Give the backbone structure.
Amino acid sequence: QVQLVESGGGLVQAGGSLRLSCAASGRTFSFYGMGWFRQAPGKEREFVAAVRWSDGSAYYADSVKGRFTLSRDNAKNTVYLQMNVVRPEDTAVYYCAAPVYNNLIADRRGYSYWGQGTQVTVSS
């Protein structure tokens, strides 16, 4: 089993910054990286960013490229999503997830383990 716990969400003004954390425990060797997704009210869950363990490759949705950055603390089994220059349209519940298919790391179909989510609200 894999457990993922997100933290760091909250209310932030447009143009500000926020850092989300995802702590993983359990069978962390069983997945290929870590991803972040988000879901706004009335919308489908969408890909935000992901990192592949094998080569450290990072992938970002076009909507967050240049503003969001992934990083990792191996000792803590934690992945961070640094969110800069946030916009009201970034408002959503953010989920971290663990992929079980290496070739679907930017696709929610590749993910089998999900955290409970953390709310991010950006005020204008």
